Amino acid sequence: MKSLISPKSLILMLIAILNTNLYAQLPKETPEQKTERMKWWTDARFGMFIHWGSYAQAARHEWVKKYERITNEQYQKYFDLFNPDMFNPSEWAKMSKEAGMKYAVITTKHHEGFCMFDSKYTDYKVTNTPYSKDIIKEWVEAFRAEGLKVGFYYSLIDWHHPDYTIDRNHPQSAKTSDEYAILNKGRDMNKYRKYLKNQISELLTNYGKIDIIWLDYSFPSGEHGKGHDDWDSENLLKMVRELQPGIIVNDRLDLKDKEGGWDFTTPEQYKVSKWPEINGKRIPWETCQTFSGSWGYYRDEATWKSEKQLLGLLIESVSKGGNLLLNVGPTARGNFDFRAQDRLEDMGKWMKFNSRSVYGCTQAPDKFPKPDNCLLTYNPESNRLYVHLLDYPMGRLTLKGFGGKVRYAQFLHDASEIKFGKPRYNVTYQESLKDKDIILMLPVVKPDTEIPVIELFLSNE
Ligand code: GLC
To answer: What is the domain extent for residue 391?
Structure first.
């Protein structure tokens, strides 16, 4: 009897089944489960990014190798001399905690390829430098001891590995396809993919529970770029999820279209205009930002953001439902630059009194329109709304449309009552005030906090 299914379609069916099975290994979860898994992170709102590697010695950007087209041989001096004698991760952890940060993400390897951890798959690692100890191990222990969650940044890009093919971002990038072909002769991305997998597996096996992994980055568009096929992203991610089931993963593996291919999006060095969405649905997000214009330590760079700008970045992120990951680039001796220390301290002073408007908060419901020069955040659990006064008003603040919605108002930093009422039309001319508006009566002198916050206890409607 003739079989109903031809051998060819049988093979195709088998492949399809195999694919679905492989695909099914990217863990499925409901939106509620994802929200629950990420809850500590969305509540935390504020974390520290740390870009540290041998580029700290060049002290002129972590991309110095590419920008100056430095060869491996010329770059070797940074490896031979690497010895951050003042590195004290407990001090870092304390500074980060006192600034109000709840988690931290450190570069275990940046694009230069230098590993800050003791990997058995390379010699190009910190334990072979004069410093000789596993920095990542010391760091993880110190940060955990302060109660901070820990995350690993790992560069998918590698400018040192002999099998990593030269692409347009590489220090030895070329002009023509022919040149690329010559340069890449003998380089084998299969071997590099294996290396990636092995190293990420080490990082997620040898250091206990890791809360976040930050893989950086894909550039698939245009010529001589790299994307998910180059990294074997899907299988890499499956491994990550298997090794650390609760881990939170960023979105730079070039798996944006895959369900479960990422957990949050990562707008870098700019403010989003509104809560980012995909297909009309709001998605988790975290903006990463520098204190000044570089991620790695850059001695001569001077565009440092002010305390007010930095607090503005944090509050504005929360007001749009997002997180802020603020970067420090430690020096090659292992210290935070004094300017970074100053700003962390300043932010910590503000956070000490005002963090209630940050932790566990999110975008305010639409029924509360934002007053001019203010940012609103909202805590859905306590049903309190926070008005951040970016430009301190003159005696009064009108909250349009808030009539009947507020039970009590106070400054957050000192819990002092703020009296409020309805507009009184008979006293003097009031511009466009309606019964549904309220006026807060503020002291003339701005309270002694960079951005004063008003806490509104909302009525339970
Ligand atoms: C970019 C840069 C890199 C930095 C990262 C932080 O991808 O290549 O230097 O580590 O952004 O988001």
So the answer is: 374-458
Say whether both 189 and 329 belong to one domain.
Answer: yes
* Greatest CA separation for the chain: 100
State how far the Cα of 456 lies from the Cα of 293, in Å rounded to an integer. 37
Residue 335: count other Cβ atoms within 10 Å of its Cβ.
17
CA of 294 to the centre of ligand 1 (A): 9
Q: How many domains does the chain have?
A: 2
Please, are residues 147 and 86 in contact by the beta-carbon 8 Å criterion? no
Contacts of 197 (CB under 8 A, 6+ apart): 232, 235, 236, 239
pLDDT given at position 44: 98
Dist. CA 397 → ligand 1 center (Å): 41
CA distances, 5 to each of 2, 14, 16, 20, 21 (Å): 9, 12, 15, 20, 22
Output the domain CATH number for residue 184: 3.20.20.80
Report whether residue 295 contacts ligand 1, using a CB cutoff of 6 Å: yes
Ligand 1 centroid–CA 158 distance in Å is 13
Alpha carbon nearest to ligand 1 atom 3, residue: 295
Q: Are strands 374-379 and 103-109 parallel, antiparallel or unpaired?
A: unpaired
Cα dist. 412→152, 266, 388, 395, 418 in Å?
35, 30, 10, 17, 10
For residue range 298-352, list pLDDT tens digits in order.
999 999 999 999 999 999 999 999 999 999 999 999 999 999 999 999 999 999 9
For residue 225, give Cα distances in angstroms to 63, 91, 123: 17, 39, 27
Amino acid at residue number 321: G
Nearest atom, ligand 1, residue 51 CA: 10
Domain boundary among 357, 392, 413: 357
Cα–Cα distance measured from residue 78 to residue 53, given in angstroms and rounded to the nearest whole number: 9
